Amino acid sequence: MKILVPIKQVPDTATQVRVAADARAIESAGITWIISPYDEFAVEEALRIKEKRGQGEVVAVSLGPDRVKEALRSCLAMGADRAIHVNDPAFADADTLTTARALAAVIKQEAPQLAIFGRQAIDDDMGALPAQVAELLGWPSLYWIMEEAIAADGASIRAGRQVEGGLEVFEASLPCVLAAQKGLNEPRYPTLKGIMGAKKKEIKDLKAADLGIAPEPPQLSVARLESLPPRPPGRVIGGDVHEAVRELVRALREEAKAI
Amino acid sequence: MANAFWCVVEDDRKGYPKKVTAEVLAEARRLSGGTAEAVWLTDSAQPEGLMRLAEWGATKIWLVEHAGLAPYRGEVWAPVLATLVAAQAPKAILGAVTSRQRELLARLAARLGVGFAADTVALAMDGDTLVATRPVYAGKLLSKVTWAKPPWVATLRPNVFKPAEPVAGREPVVERPAVTVPDAMLKLVERREEVSTGLPELSEAELVVSGGRGMKGPEHFVILEHLASVIGAAVGASRAAVDAGWRPHRFQIGQTGRTISPKLYLGFGISGAIQHLAGMRTSKIIVAVNKDPEAPIFKVADYGIVGDLFEVVPALTEEFKKLLAK
Ligand SMILES: Cc1cc2nc3c(=O)[nH]c(=O)nc-3n(C[C@H](O)[C@H](O)[C@H](O)COP(=O)(O)OP(=O)(O)OC[C@H]3O[C@@H](n4cnc5c(N)ncnc54)[C@H](O)[C@@H]3O)c2cc1C
Ligand SMILES: Nc1ncnc2c1ncn2[C@@H]1O[C@H](COP(=O)(O)O)[C@@H](O)[C@H]1O
């Protein structure tokens, strides 16, 4: 079974992000880059499926600039078999839809039985790509997956998605798109052997032309990035516990009107 | 009506629209200057449900009622919605951040070839285009986005937008367009309900009580549940509490958990790491109780108590009881 895992490289959440001079992107200098955490759940799940079935191929894919190779290399170190880097300046201002079209084109070429995404990338927090790629491919999609099991014959999948108030378990014939939620698994760390082995694995570069697509102008654009407006300064309530609590409840009722 | 602002109805699966729909409808009305149309895909709509939509300000309701629409499946719903859009040419299609609509509206936008803005916290007209504001980079920045062309497709974060005040006596105007409902590829095999806590659902709750590593163990969460039941709040947790196995994953608040925006958030024994703040910093009022005066959560808190939560929580529960008994 071939499994494709689209991953995004994002700034480490602990790094400070600063708005760039044009106010439409962030300053890229000084940023530590990581694989978006949900995508690590996706890679891990793909590896587990392969290990459980005793055969198969896990292919990591990312669209982005040169730095993205490092994230793909980490996926290879975790155990992915090979990687595809959609690396073309024509995608520099790609929005979600353009990225979805490119990833759908990769999936058409590779024809995997399964594509496992993260539920959202933690930089833009859009959470839209898995659905959009599935729509473009005409595949079913299951969001916020907490558990999954592939049928022994490899033809269908059972997966549980988190919804308000419970979990819905669905069955689908493959191919299918999954979007991984935290709780699906605990991602492994690359071993030293894995890191060494990753150096010999293939990362294939693809241009838009290789995918037979011409990127279109974005449908959604960032007009401005802004810092958060500061929250009004808060108040620490002193006194003994009972006084403090009484004052807190009074303030919540009378000042904040929150209760 | 061409150029209409549409609100995709989120219902309770029993035939009634949820409160978040009142928020989306109010916003659609405000932006359009008074007309907002509801689109409701469901297996069964209750007459009082339709009434409620009218009272919330839906000037028209596009209702597709079909057994094939339950349970929600993206590959079924997106083409149905797209067919309606093609026939009516609305200007905007607004929904709520819910388990179904986050996927549905993304699919719809891909099908229509237009932009999609997820999880917006503010919307405004700039001349004759829509500008949406959305938190990005763990909520550290706000991004203002615009569309190249309509229809503008977006989801709205629950509890952020002001809900419509119901106006009694408005009669629903219901259109039942004939639409083919495609066959589903997904088959529901099981729905596991959470054991009902009697408390509201985390992402919809107006009041949230949340515990972190300072809770010291799963057995102590009962004091938060007690507090929560007194004021009618949901109980959430930090990742540290979830990863320790004290609470199930679905209760995690933060970047790798739920995003919430309640009227009141009360955090106990939570330090306020950036990844936690990402999930709750748009809460209207934030209260922090922590024994460390340097805990970063105090930087975003409107009210703080420096103290031991094991003393504060029971005292606070009693004080709320007294207040609410009045
Ligand atoms: C990629 C990534 C994603 C993450 N996603 C999330 C996420 O979604 N949500 C999330 O919450 N975290 C997330 N984290 C983890 C985050 O960085 C913090 O580690 C976590 O939020 C800490 O949880 P905490 O505040 O409960 O624990 P701690 O940081 O250990 O804080 C415990 C606090 O309790 C106080 N305390 C202890 N005892 C008492 C007492 N008796 N009375 C009062 N106060 C007391 C202490 O003073 C301390 O401030 C993520 C981290 C990473 C790297
Ligand atoms: N540039 C990209 N290249 C490959 N996969 C991506 C890219 N951006 C997003 N993804 C995938 O799509 C998921 C959702 O992303 P988003 O819709 O941007 O929140 C991520 O978790 C990744 O699995």
How would you describe this protein?
The complex is a heterodimer of chains A (259) and B (326). Chain A has six helices and 13 strands. With 259 residues, chain A is α/β, with parallel strands linked by helices. Chain A folds into two domains: 2-211, HUPs (Rossmann fold, 3-Layer(aba) Sandwich); 229-259, no CATH class. In chain A, the strands form two sheets. Chain A has a nine-stranded mixed beta sheet with strand order 9-8-7-10-6-1-4-5-11, sandwiched between helices. Chain A has a two-stranded antiparallel ribbon with strand order 2-3. In chain A, a hairpin with a 2-residue loop joins strand 8 and strand 9. In chain A, helix 2 packs across helix 5 and helix 3 crosses helix 4. The relative contact order of chain A is 0.18. With 326 residues, chain B is of the alpha/beta class. Chain B has helices at 19-32, 47-55, 74-88, 101-112, 221-231, 239-243, 274-277, 297-300, 309-325, and strands at residues 5-8, 36-42, 58-65, 92-96, 116-120, 122-126, 129-136, 141-147, 152-156, 174-175, 186-193, 207-211, 234-237, 264-268, 285-290, 303-306. At the A-B interface, helix 3, helix 4, strand 7, strand 8 and strand 9 of A face helix 3, helix 4, strand 5, strand 7 and strand 8 of B. Strand 9 of chain A pairs antiparallel with strand 11 (186-193) of chain B. The structure holds flavin-adenine dinucleotide and adenosine monophosphate. Adenosine monophosphate is lined by residues 6-8, 36, 38-39, 42, 61-64, 96, 99, 103, 117-118, 120-121, 124, 126-130 of chain A.
